Amino acid sequence: MKMGLIVQKFGGTSVADVEKIQNVANRVAEEKENGNDVVVVVSAMGKTTDHLVDMAQQISTSPSKREMDMLLTTGEQVTISLLALALQQKGYDAISYTGWQAGMVTEPVHGNARILDIKTERIKKDLAEGRIVVVAGFQGLTEEGEITTLGRGGSDTTAVALAAALDADKCDIYTDVTGVYTTDPRYVKGARKLLGISYDEMLELANLGAGVLHPRAVEFAKNYGVTLEVRSSMEVERGTLIEEEISMEQNLIVRGIAFEDQITRVSIIGLDNSIASLPTIFTTLANHHINVDIIIQSGTGTDKANISFSIKSSDLAETLEVLEENKGLLNYEHIESETGLSKVSIVGAGMISNPGVAAKMFEVLAGEGIQVKMVSTSEIKVSTVVSDEQMVSAVEALHDAFELAKVAVSA
Amino acid sequence: MKMGLIVQKFGGTSVADVEKIQNVANRVAEEKENGNDVVVVVSAMGKTTDHLVDMAQQISTSPSKREMDMLLTTGEQVTISLLALALQQKGYDAISYTGWQAGMVTEPVHGNARILDIKTERIKKDLAEGRIVVVAGFQGLTEEGEITTLGRGGSDTTAVALAAALDADKCDIYTDVTGVYTTDPRYVKGARKLLGISYDEMLELANLGAGVLHPRAVEFAKNYGVTLEVRSSMEVERGTLIEEEISMEQNLIVRGIAFEDQITRVSIIGLDNSIASLPTIFTTLANHHINVDIIIQSGTGTDKANISFSIKSSDLAETLEVLEENKGLLNYEHIESETGLSKVSIVGAGMISNPGVAAKMFEVLAGEGIQVKMVSTSEIKVSTVVSDEQMVSAVEALHDAFELAKVAVSA
Predict the structure, then answer these.
(1) Per CATH, is B5-246 categorized as 3.40.50.2000?
(2) Which of A298, A396, A408, B279 has CA 20 to 30 A from B206's CA?
(3) How far is residue B360's CA from residue B341's CA, in Å, rounded to a whole number?
């Protein structure tokens, strides 16, 4: 590893107690001893956020987002000071900064603000003086001096944004897994850790629930060309590099297989085939915070259309209620729904130049006697909806068919 | 009560849990319903600070004051947000501010900073718009953007300083006692709550360990003419007013009796009678954070002097060690010490114009067969050191002799 500037990010489980914070200090110290400048971004300790939210909910039936930001940002502030103390105890010169002290300027939105700017003078001065800088993730300040939070995956975003603003050589995301896998190793024995993956592939996998890294942070990294590495905070092995040009495993067409159970298909039958119907349905659902994933429209060209879409099964009751309430507006005949479904997706940038990948997928599934109930494709992804019971065998068959268990020869 | 601006301060025991924070919201709402503008200053919840300190001590043998300030200021930030939520839940427009958001500018010292300035624009704007403003006590920001704390009694100081800066009509200090008493009611049955007391008297009582209000806050109030009221957060009765011109009980010469056990007298015998000896001794002790209270010098005029001083008994071992280490420098013959002592003090602004108060005190104590071992006087206070076993009977005898149990006729 050449000497440079590394941004490290440690999530809540990596700093859950005093002992784990001391372990993080060791990881930071190693990087410093390697001759690198280090900026560390941390989240709130383990269950801290839950405890704070619990108190707020005891007090308020609908807590204001502004006061929740005020409350929750104390979590990371505790971690940064304890980590700075742990580093100082090991003899390192370390200093902690809240989001606003680190110059993190956000838009004036509470609970889910976007970063507008990072004023890095203070951090740059500390780095130049040899200091390790510890920054609170997830938080920022508006130009009016209001404390904001960045929403889900906020600490990942803080780390990537800082890496971009400081022109860091690398941003290491430490987590409780050792990297990004070809598929979930808890379900598929042959799952293999990837050495490299492109931003777009990671985005598809992250959006598909691979869960190690927030899509917003990946997008930020892609836009600013920040090289990410997802790695374990407990083990020293190499993780998975995420960058534009991946130098290894180029010959793989499919990079990974993502899957998710508890999916429900909802079909609206006999819908008035007007231009307004489609936006009306999905705007109405979005207003009720119901996330719709795959959407399939059939029967265009006639005066009645059928629309099918997939949702999380936990949203079914509310979805049916919303559709029922708006029956007059939407003007449909009836609703059908099917629960007990799963989504299985193959992801890989190589698909773009390899036609027939989707066809091969369907063939493999058919060979296993698995019925495909819905399909959705993007340039680097094919998603299928199958029954819950067939999810794991679908993943295993695809993992074999696309030879993901094989280690590719490095370029 | 005329309409105006009230600053209320609630300490850690008053906001120890969710239920108590809701109770504080009720007290704040009452004041608002009375037609007043209200600014509320709160401390960290109950045991929060202890918990944070405990984690820091697990990590660091000598935690840096800067990081401790970073850590501890999260405590009040949690309370302000929860109190703002509780007020909003009751239908009030409330907003919380950290110390730095409230414009609290301090000197660049960690752990014990003094307030330099308060930029009140933001709070004034909120008050003008009818908002209840909730401010984190104990904390501020340096001009360089560093988070600082105000040290012991810091939240009292925040409240008084805000009251001064906002030109508030009154600053109410809510605590777990109902006011300032003529002496400690846990020891003396006849102890009576005072309706009023002057700043100087309160200062002497506070310094003597009456403990309800930090001396620094009293001094600040005196310098800026802020009327204080010490009152209970749990009961609705009137508390004790602290102001320059006290309108009631003027005819009392002695206003209160303070006392403190676990005192030790240390005597340095046969000290070289040079000009340098006295400063050398007390500078050396101060450098070791040993607080010296009463100091008596005898034997001046000869070439050898004796110095006696009182300390807390818990500081005895270190005091003896420091004196032994510096024996060569101080050039004394030997050290004597007497433990098991108490300090009993009478306080009252009326003493200034009533000579013979000290004489009466000694007479009362002699009448009870109590030997006085050390004496110290100021314009409004006489302190005596007696044996531990005689402390309570000394206080009772003085409380009777100076007729403190009697309610004075209002002026």
Answers:
(1) no
(2) B279
(3) 22
B67 to A85: CB separation less than 8 angstroms, yes or no: yes
pLDDT at B250 over 70: no
In chain A, residues with a C-beta closer than 8 Å to the C-beta of B85 are 56, 59-60, 63-64, 67, 71
Q: Residues 6 or more apart from B227 whose CB is under 8 A from it?
A: B169, B170, B171, B221, B241, B242, B243
Q: What does the alpha-carbon distance between residue A167 and residue B335 come to, in Å, rounded to a whole number? A: 65
Instruction: Name the residue facing A55 among B18, B55, B145 (closest C-beta).
Output: B18
Could you tell me the strand order of the sheet in which B5-10 lies?
B94-97, B132-136, B37-42, B5-10, B170-175, B228-232, B240-242, B196-197
- In tens, the pLDDT along A261-316 reads 999 999 999 887 777 777 788 888 888 888 888 888 776 566 788 889 999 999 99
Q: Which residues of B touch A66 (CB under 8 A)?
A: 95
Q: What is the dihedral of CA B100, B103, B108, B109, to 10 degrees?
A: -70
Least Cα separation, residue A82 to chain B (angstroms):
6
Q: What is the mean pLDDT of residues B330-335?
A: 90
Which residue type occupies B255? R
Considering chain B, what percentage of its residues have pLDDT values greater than 70?
94
Kindly indicate whether the domain formed by A257-401 is annotated with CATH number 3.40.50.970: no
- For domain A5-176, give the CATH superfamily: Acetylglutamate kinase-like (3.40.1160.10)
Confidence of residue B306 (pLDDT cuts 50, 70, 90): confident
What 3-state class would DSSP assign to A377? strand
Per-residue exposure over B212-233, b if at least 16 CB sit within 10 Å of its own CB, e if not: bbbbbbbbbbbeeebbbbbbbb
- Tell me which chain A residues have a C-beta less than 8 angstroms from the C-beta of B92: none
Provide the ipTM.
Answer: 0.82
- Give the Cβ contact number of residue A260 at 10 Å: 21
Do A5-176 and A257-401 come out as alike in CATH topology? no
* pLDDT of the residue at B151: 87
The DSSP bridge partners found for residue A376 are A383
Q: Which residues of A touch B (CB under 8 A)?
A: 18, 21-22, 52, 55-56, 58-61, 63-64, 66-68, 70-71, 73-74, 77-78, 80-82, 84-86, 88-89, 95-96, 98, 101, 122, 145, 147
pLDDT at residue A204 is higher than 90 = no
Which sequence spans correspond to the domains of chain B?
5-246, 257-401
Crossing angle of the two packed helices A215-224 and A154-165, in degrees rounded to 10: 10
Written as one string, the DSSP assignment of A300-346 is TTSSEEEEEEEEEGGGHHHHHHHHHHTHHHH--SEEEEEEEEEEEEE
Q: Give the pLDDT confidence score for residue A82 in this predicted structure.
A: 98
Residues of chain A contacting B95 with CB distance shorter than 8 Å: 66
